[in-house]
Every structure is written in structure tokens, then in C-alpha cells.
Design a protein that fits this description.
Elements (H helix, E strand, L loop, with lengths): L1 E6 L4 E3 L9 H11 L3 E5 H5 L11 E5 L10 E4 L2 H8 L7 E3 L3 H7 L5 E7 L7 E2 L9 E6 L3 E3 L2 E10 L3
The structure holds NADP nicotinamide-adenine-dinucleotide phosphate.
């Protein structure tokens, strides 16, 4: 399983249930990696998306405890067990956790690969994820050159779980 996230230098990922910055290059990177794949998100992340709809051309799973919850283009699941039973039908390389913090923090250790767009700024987040640099089970295997866009500088990092 994979995870894909954009985080600022404090590992902040959002504020007021929205993203911290609009970065076209990161949107493109996200789309390239998740297109035709399976994406998994929490209910709050879905509600932060345009039209409160699942992403096009992807299989969207949304976790919520609300038994009556519905959303266009989404498969709704109500528990961890229901989620992972459903995901067992896919190749794990095709599954991406796409947020938010409740999903990233609870399940990142189940991921072999973490795609992190690391923004070199403090963007005043109210929502944070684990500092992957402090998890000795993961190492950076790829790091792009810095890119500057819309007043922010960022790099694409890939972390992989270390082999035993
Ligand atoms: N920077 C990025 O790459 C990125 C990506 C995605 C999101 N974000 C940001 O992250 C923030 C949202 O994160 P968040 O942590 O507040 O919300 P979230 O993880 O998107 O959603 C939380 C909700 O998911 C449901 N949920 C989670 N685990 C569950 C479980 N085991 N069983 C049943 N339901 C479960 C619950 O919904 P119910 O309350 O309905 O039960 C919970 O309230 C926003 O600011 C968003 O913009 C950033």
C-alpha cells in the first residue's frame, strides 16, 4: 500500500479542513500517481473536495462512522475491518491513502511507500501528520530537486519501508 501527501516543514497538512497551498505541480504529481488506482480517504477529506464527490477515474473509498453517509463516485465503508476486507481484492501497489491526518497517522505503517511533497515553509497548519524522518523503519529513497511555484519551494520525496 502507498500513501501520498503534501506536508509543510512542520508536517502540517491542512487548516480549516482545506489544503495549505495550491500547488499545480503537486496536483499534477498526485494525479499521475493515483490515476486509475484505488484511493482511500476519511469523510472530512472527501468533504473538502470540490463538489464533495470522489475523484474521477479512481476507485474512491471513504471511511465514516455515519451509517447514512452517501457521496457520488464513492464506496462508503464504516470500519477498519470493512475497509481492509474490501481492499484485499486489489493489488496493494495500486492502493493509495490520500488523507487526512486520521487516515495517515493511523495507517501509514501499513504502507511500503510514502510519496511526500515536502514544502519548505511554515504554512500555519491546524492538522499534522507523523514526522516520517523520525520513524526509523522508513528511509528516503528518492528526492527531487527543489521546485518553486506560487511563492513556495517544495521537493518530491519518496520514503520506503526498510527491508528486514
Ligand atoms: N496535504 C495533503 O496532502 C492532504 C490530503 C488530504 C487531506 N488533507 C487535509 O487534512 C485535513 C482533514 O484531516 P482530518 O484528520 O481532520 O480528517 P479525515 O482523516 O479526512 O477524516 C476524518 C473522518 O474519517 C472518518 N474515519 C476515520 N477513521 C475511521 C474509522 N476507523 N472508522 C470510521 N470512520 C473513520 C471519521 O468520519 P465521521 O466523523 O463521519 O465518522 C472521521 O471524522 C483537511 O485540512 C484536509 O485538507 C491534506
Amino acid at each position: 500500500m502507498n500513501l501520498i501527501v503534501a506536508a509543510d516543514r512542520n508536517w502540517g497538512i491542512g487548516c480549516n479542513n482545506a489544503l495549505l497551498a495550491s500547488i499545480p505541480g503537486d496536483m499534477k504529481y498526485f494525479k499521475e500517481h493515483t490515476m486509475d488506482k484505488v484511493v482511500v480517504m476519511g469523510r472530512r477529506t472527501l468533504e473538502s473536495m470540490p463538489g464533495r464527490r470522489g475523484l474521477p477515474k479512481r476507485i474512491n473509498y471513504v471511511l465514516t462512522s455515519d451509517p447514512g453517509f452517501e457521496a457520488e463516485r464513492c464506496i462508503i465503508v464504516h470500519s477498519e475491518n470493512e475497509l481492509f476486507d474490501a481492499l484485499s481484492q486489489y493489488d496493494t501497489d495500486d492502493v493509495f491513502l490520500i488523507g487526512g491526518s486520521s487516515i495517515y497517522n493511523r495507517y501509514y505503517r501499513m504502507c511500503d511507500r510514502l510519496y511526500v511533497t515536502k514544502i519548505d515553509a511554515d504554512l500555519g497548519a491546524d492538522t499534522f501528520i507523523t514526522n516520517f524522518d523520525e520513524d526509523s523503519d522508513y528511509e528516503i529513497v528518492s528526492e527531487s530537486e527543489p521546485v518553486s511555484e506560487n511563492g513556495v519551494t517544495y521537493r518530491f520525496l519518496i520514503y520506503e519501508k526498510k527491508q528486514d
